[in-house]
């Protein structure tokens, strides 16, 4: 999972020169997020899609809840729970479920390019939600990025959209909504606490979902399957968010965001190295085009 635009709405103090430790933490966060799709494919070796998502949420919620208890973090104020529900629905449930369903039939390289559009989608949601008016350059770059992804998707699907593509586009929308609302909350509490409380909020539903799905979906435990589950829960959802926010607070938002531009390309590398996928010639070209559009929008927003 990625958090680029939820991060851009936080307000950590940007320091002068970037420290090596902060850069390393932010880079670790990007690497953790880039492994989400390959780990999900591994997890599907052992679990059904619904079981995998439910177990992922349960494990991540237990880890986050343990940290919140250990650090004696006070629960959010009542007015924040509605926004936390949006974060939970988009980031904790919606995005993982829809992308997992998509990855049953889609390659990780294809999904990485489509979901690479998430920063632009989140920026559009944020503009609507906050009432801000980005520049014309921003909108031109955002539309160009969307056009690149749509053209890549249609060409790779034989001239039409497949069910997996619809899942991926749906994941973009719900995750962008969750990131936008989480970004607003992150101005009032640390970002990792926003995600932590959203996970805890989902724990009862996730536990019930795990019990039901495990009763209906077969489980075939393999080493890769278990490793995939553990990584998407502990690595992508918890560790990635923790080091990302710590690193961003150290080196500043703008500098950290530049590191995250490498995430889609890293996922393409993992899809080849870990899954043995063969990239289509259009995949790296489309990913690079999306990254250029993202860079332009970030510069326009700055």
Describe the structure in your own words.
This protein has 302 residues and is an all-alpha fold. 76% of the residues lie in helices and 0% in strands. The protein is built from 14 helices and no strands. It has helices at residues 4-8, 20-34, 36-43, 49-70, 81-102, 108-115, 118-130, 136-156, 163-185, 191-216, 223-251, 253-260, 263-273, 282-301. The radius of gyration is 18 Å and the shape is globular. The model is unreliable at 2-18 (pLDDT under 50).
- In percent, how helical is the residue content? over 70%
Characterize the quaternary organization of these chains: single chain
Q: Unreliable runs, pLDDT <50, ≥5 residues?
A: 2-18
Specify the number of helices. Answer: 14
- Evaluate the radius of gyration: 18 Å
Secondary structure layout plus pairing:
Blueprint: H1 4-8, H2 20-34, H3 36-43, H4 49-70, H5 81-102, H6 108-115, H7 118-130, H8 136-156, H9 163-185, H10 191-216, H11 223-251, H12 253-260, H13 263-273, H14 282-301
Helix pairs in contact: 2-11, 2-13, 3-11, 4-5, 4-10, 4-11, 5-9, 5-10, 6-13, 6-14, 7-9, 8-14, 10-11, 11-12
Summarize the structure.
The chain has 14 helices and no strands. With 302 residues, the chain is an all-alpha fold. It is globular and about 45 Å long.
Keywords for this entry:
302 residues
């Amino acid at each position: 999972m990625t958090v680029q635009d939820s991060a851009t709405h936080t307000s950590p103090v940007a320091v002068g020169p970037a420290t090596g430790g902060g850069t390393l933490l932010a880079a670790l966060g990007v690497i953790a997020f880039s492994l989400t799709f390959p780990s999900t494919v591994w997890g599907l070796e052992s679990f059904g899609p619904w079981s995998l998502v439910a177990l992922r949420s349960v494990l991540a919620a237990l880890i986050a809840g343990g940290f919140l208890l250990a650090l004696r973090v006070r629960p959010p104020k009542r007015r924040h729970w509605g926004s936390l529900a949006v974060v939970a629905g988009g980031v904790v449930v919606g995005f993982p479920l829809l992308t997992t369903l998509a990855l049953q039939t889609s390659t990780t390289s294809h999904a990485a390019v489509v979901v690479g559009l998430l920063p632009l989608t989140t920026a559009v949601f944020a503009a609507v939600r906050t009432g801000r008016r980005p520049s014309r350059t921003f909108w031109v770059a955002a539309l160009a990025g969307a056009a690149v992804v749509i053209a890549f998707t249609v060409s790779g699907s034989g001239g039409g959209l497949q069910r997996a593509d619809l899942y991926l586009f749906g994941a973009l929308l719900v995750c962008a909504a969750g990131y936008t609302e989480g970004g607003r909350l992150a101005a009032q509490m640390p970002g990792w606490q926003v995600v932590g409380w959203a996970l805890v909020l989902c724990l009862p539903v996730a536990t019930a979902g795990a019990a039901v799905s495990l009763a209906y979906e077969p489980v075939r435990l393999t080493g890769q399957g278990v490793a995939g589950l553990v990584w998407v829960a502990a690595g992508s959802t918890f560790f990635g968010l923790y080091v990302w926010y710590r690193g961003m607070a150290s080196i500043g938002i703008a500098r950290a965001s530049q590191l995250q531009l490498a995430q889609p390309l890293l996922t393409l590398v993992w899809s080849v190295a870990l899954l043995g996928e063969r990239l289509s010639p259009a995949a790296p070209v489309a990913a690079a085009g999306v990254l250029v559009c993202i860079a332009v929008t970030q510069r326009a927003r700055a």
